[in-house]
Amino acid sequence: MSEWPMEWEGKSCVVCVHDKDSLTDIQHSLKMLKLSVRGATDLVHARAELISGEEPALILVEGDAEDRDGVIRDFVRSVKSHPSLYRAPVCLMVQVEEGEKESAPSLAQVSAPVDGVLHLPVEFPNFSREVRRMLEQYVPPVGAVANGDGSEKVVPAPLQEVAPKVGAGVKVEAPLGGQSVKTNGVSNVTSQVARLLDRRLVVAYGLQLAILEQLERDERFLRAEADEIPS
C-alpha cells in the first residue's frame, strides 16, 4: 500500500455516478490528471469495486447534499471504517442546474461526512482543477478510523505494510493493540490466505453485503412473513 500523501498519477479512482454520459465526461476529465476510472452506476457495484481492486486515490459518489435517506452517509462511514480504504478521500458530486452555480451547496452544507464537493455536470477544465486542488490539499487520517459513534479505533496494519523479515519464517507485524509482535511461519501462512482469495469470491461477498443493507431498508421485506420470502 502506498504512503500518503500519495502521487496519484497512474492510480485509479472509483466513481459512482447514475448517468453513463457523466461517467464518460469524468473519465476524460480525470485522464488529464493521469487517473484511471473504475466506474459504477450504483453503490452496490461501487462497493464491489472498492473491495476487489487496488486502493483508490479518490472516491467520487453522486448524491444529494441533504442525503435525506442517509445512504451517502452510511456509504462514507463504511469506507472510513475500512482498514484498507479509510485514507482515501471521498467526494460528493452534486447536480447543479444551469444558472444556479452561485447557490450550489458547499462542503459545510452537505450532511454526509465527505471530504469535498464537486458539481455536475462536468465542466472542462474546471472539474480537473477542482479534483487536483482537493488531492493536493487533502490530509488523510493516520493510525485510526472512525467508529459509527464518532470515536476512534486502532487500524490493524494491512498485509502490505508488514515489516521486513527478521528471521526464517518470522515477521514483525502490528497487531490490533498497536505494538509489534513476532509471528511464526504458520501464522504468516494464515495471514496470506486473505490475499490469495479468488477475486470473484471477494466481489460476490461485497455484493452480498450491499444487498443485505438494501433489504434492511426495505419496509416490505421487513414486514413480510418468513414463509412469504423466497428461499
Q: Class of the largest domain in CATH?
A: Alpha Beta
Strand order in the largest sheet: 2-1-3-4-5
Number of strands: 9
Query: What is the distance, rounded to the nearest whole angstrom, between the alpha carbons of the first and last residues?
Result: 41 Å
Q: State the CATH topology of the largest domain.
A: Rossmann fold
So how many helices?
A: 7
Shape: globular
Main β-sheet, in a few words?
Answer: 5 strands, parallel
Radius of gyration, taken over Cα atoms and rounded to an integer in Å? 20 Å
Beta-strand portion reads: 15-25%
**Structural class given helices, strands, pairing?**
alpha/beta
Number of domains: 2
Measured as a percent range, the helix fraction is 25-40%
Name the helix and strand elements from N-terminus to C-terminus, one letter apiece: EHEHEHEEHEEEEHHH
Q: Going by CATH, what is the homologous superfamily of the largest domain?
A: Response regulator
Q: Could you say what the CATH architecture of the largest domain is? A: 3-Layer(aba) Sandwich
Instruction: Determine the mean pLDDT.
Output: 74
Q: pLDDT under 50 segments (min length 5)?
A: 1-5, 148-152, 154-198
